[in-house]
Structures are given as C-alpha cells and as structure tokens.
Amino acid sequence: MRNLLGTLLIVVPLTAQAQTAIPQIVPTPQGPAPQSLALSNTAPPQFQVRRRIFNEVAHGIMRNDPAAPTALDKVLTDYESAAFRYTPLESLEIIGFYFLPREGMEKVFQVIVAEQVMGWYDVLRYASDSGREEIVNNEGFFKLPIVIGGPRVATLAAKYFDEHPAEARAMLARGFSFADSWRETLNYDRHWPSYYGLERLICRQDPTTCKTAPELDRSKWNAAWSEAKQRVAAYYQLDKPFAK
Length: 244
What we know:
Blueprint (H helix, E strand, L loop, with lengths): L5 H6 L34 H17 L5 H12 L8 H16 L1 H22 L2 H10 L5 H6 L1 H13 L1 H17 L16 H8 L15 H15 L9
Keywords: Signal
C-alpha cells in the first residue's frame, strides 16, 4: 500500500534546520499485544506513547525538519509490520496524514472502513458511556482521517462519495470482509477505549478507585459487531439506497 518516501521528499525539501529533536519509535514486538484488563494511573499505555511520537513526527514533517522523513519511515515500517498492529485511532491518524492524501479515497476507503469497524467494536465492548462520547467528540473517531488530511482531502473525499456511490459501497463491503477476517485479533490492545471517560479520569486522580475496565457481556458481542458495521455505513450515508 505504501509508496516509498520519494514523493514525500520532493514536496518536503531537506533544507530547514531541525527545531526540536524528533523522537524515534521503538519497533512494536511481534505477536499478541498486552491487553489492558485493568485501569491504572501509572505509565501511559503504549498506544498513547506511539500517538505522541507520531504527532511530533508529523509536525516535524510540516515544518520541514530534516530528521522527520527518516522518523516517519520508521513509523510507517512499524505500522505495516503486521495487520492491525496499531489501535484504530493510531491507524486512522496515519492513514489520514500519509496514505489518504497520496492514494485517494478510491484506494484507502476499504482500509478506513475496516479500522473503524474494528475500533467501534472495541468501543462498544470496552468503553463506558462517557468514554464513547469522548472518543467520538474529542477524538473525532469517524471523521479523523479526513480531518487530518486537510480541506483538499475532505473535498476530494466528498466528491468521491457523491460521484461514485456504487464503488464506495463495494469498498465498504470489502472493508467489512477484511474486518471479519480479523475480528478478534489481539495484535493490538483491544481495551484501548477503557482509557477514555470519567472512570479513567477518576483513576488518575485516586489510584484506589482504579478497577477492571468495563466489558460488554460476551453474549452481546455478535450484536455489537453488527452494530459497528451499521454505524460505519451510516456515517458515510452508505446505509441508504442510492439512485442508479
């Protein structure tokens, strides 16, 4: 999916001086990721550490920091080292910043769909009500990749959905199929949604209140999977009939 950084190096000349040190990501170990079954007020989870690093790398790219392209290449290499290696929030940021502006919605939409289905499934299983609101409203979960891409990407995305609804629906189905194949993967921390909401805030303030992360009854997981697909389709208005 990824092109080499040649295009990036053309549009970002390596002439500016570094303003701050660009952090280097530590490669993510292969195999199942640690699952955060209990809330904690100690070290931040790995996905939040990686998000902070990526944010700094992205800002380095935008200010033409000569160290940033190499750091970005390492992030992308780690991200692509295995399917669903990163949490959906991380993946949507990377897709919106790097892949979507270069590949277009025509190629990337199915990946966005898969990440959002997986992510919203996690949210339905492991987030509290306040956590869900924070993930949608503060993190902008569904609009995240398009917003990060900027106005030009948003305009092209809107044009794609308006002019190619049948193709978009086919890509939606492909994204669903991809997500189906990886529905219960443990390649990333599936409990990432538990790090949002009032419960997490209270835990940070008083360690005696930290408890096991909320979890949806397992008998309802199949319904949650269907609901996640419906939510994604509805967001892109692909749950409605379109004129042929």
